[in-house]
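Exam review. A common question shows you a sequence with its structure tokens and asks you to describe the fold in words. Practice with the pair below. Do the first one on your own.
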Amino acid sequence: MEETSTNRAIPIISVTLLFAIGYAILRYHIMGEVPWQNLPFFIMNKGLSLAAFLLLVMNFSLGPASNLGLKVPASWLDARKALGMTGFLLVLVHVLMSLVLMGPASYGKMYEWSGGLSLMAGLSMLFGVLAFVALWAYNMSFQTFLREEAAFITFITSRRFMLAALLLGAAHLFFLGYEGWLAVEDWHGYLPPISLVAFVVFVIGYILNLLGRE
């Protein structure tokens, strides 16, 4: 019996979530010193943000990878829409959770002594918002009531727009965490920061898109 895309999407999403949340727990709680009381919200937010980025990169990059001759199962290609929609929903959850957490108590490194956001934090938030809007527009392109807008759909689903959306997300990650990327001695258990893991995944996905998207 032929495997359906729905059945394939579920295990991909499940494994991605388990890996991302598990990595956050390992890095911050087991190898780090973050109190376990922060697991349900602060650390979960980090894990969900990583899972969202992984799923979105897979959504954008499985097709180009297949075009380059890499062995990507047909069921994975069929699952791309589900991966992208799930990634977008996780981004929305991440945005809402981050708004609740926002403040010097949770993100002290993002704030100046005066109480305002630092320049790097401000740039990170700007690119994060722009990336979210780009993803929202991309997901809107699948809505039935917009499908008659041919010019809009063509632009939103174009290779150029896809790469721009990825770049905005990468800029958010870079300005948010690049200072911590350089301080290897401060990495919990020498495990790379979640923002760096996501950025490396972006680089791989971006190269695949540059080389393989038709």
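Now try the second one, then compare your answer with the model answer below.
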Amino acid sequence: MAAAVGTRLVVYLEDAPGSDRPLDYQHAVRQDLVIRYAAAGDWSADPERLVAGPGAWRYVDVLLRRMRTRELAVVEVWDFIDDVGAGLRGLADKVERIRGLDPGWSVSGLLVVRATQQNRRLVTQLSAIFATNLPASSRAWLRALSEPEGRMPAGRGLVWSDVRGTRLFASNLSRRQRVALSHSAP
């Protein structure tokens, strides 16, 4: 029925009835986690930041700003990976829109992905796509977010959030996949 009206049916199983939590609870938990984690790195946060641009208005899940170093981090949260291409293009588009609004600032993007079995399996299966679109070290990103002297990587990156949304952790995808890609080049 959903396909017939041009939409998708997405079902989540939660440990509490839907009326007890907002529909975007898992998403909001991760936004909150990013904001709290980045506070240690001297970042101020602007959740659900509206960004105008050609074609459509867009919202950035969390825009982080570090005034002292003139850095802006566009953070997007993925609870459930349902469209890889659209998500990666969306992050790139938002980074470019923010870059255009704030010339002279360093701007980059970060995906925070909920580490469900399905999401981890998909990232592994499509590792070349993720590694080439998100080449920055996730460890460098975590350092930049949590340490005032940690510099934001120039490239976009990916970090994992545990399933409950209580911690962020590094992905080894980028380093492993960069090595594999360099060995497979003609």
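Model answer, second protein: Helices lie at 25-39, 84-101, 117-125, 127-133, 138-146, 173-184. The two ends are 47 Å apart (CA to CA). Full marks require stating both points clearly.
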